[in-house]
Amino acid sequence: MEVSNQTQQALRTVIQNCTLMQLAGAPSGSYLDQDAQPHIAVDGKDICVVRCSSFGKVFHDIDSHCSGAKYTTHVFGLQPCAPCRVCKPSVPNLQWYNQLLAIVLVLADNHVPIPHIALTPDDHLTADMILPILPDSELYQEASGWELNRAVQVLQKAIKQQLACEQQKSC
Questions:
Q1: Helices and strands counted in the chain (H then E)
Q2: pTM listed for this prediction
Q3: pLDDT at 39
C-alpha cells in the first residue's frame, strides 16, 4: 500500500508534541510494560496487577490476604473472573488501551514513528489534562485479533528501541 507524503506529514504534525498515552487519552499514571501490557499507577500502586487463587474465579487487591490468593497476574489474564467482595480491588478502565492499539496501527501503516511511550507512571503524569488529539474511538473499527497482535508487536519493538535509545542517551 502506497502511503502519501501528505498523510505522513499530517500524522507527524498531529503527534509532534504528544506521547502515545496522550494521543490515546490514557489517565495519569498510565504506562506500558516491556510486553506492551497497560498499567495504571494509583497512589503508588499498580491497579492492573492483582492476586488470584489457583481456582481463578475471583481476583483480589495486590495487598489483600483475605483469601490466601498467592498468584500475581495482570488483569488481562483474568477472564472470566470477578472482583472479591471482601477486599474490593480496583477494576481499571482500560478502554484507552484499545484506542492506543488503533493509533499504533494507523501510525505503523503510514510509516510514521511511534511517539514517546510512557514506560513508568512518572512518564505520563499530565496526560489526563491534555485532550486526545486524534478522533474519538467510536470512529475506529473494532480491530481483529490479528490486527491487535500486530499492534502489540509494533509496540513491543518500539519499546525495545526506546529503551535502547535511553540507555545510550542519544535520543
A1: 4, 7
A2: 0.76
A3: 93
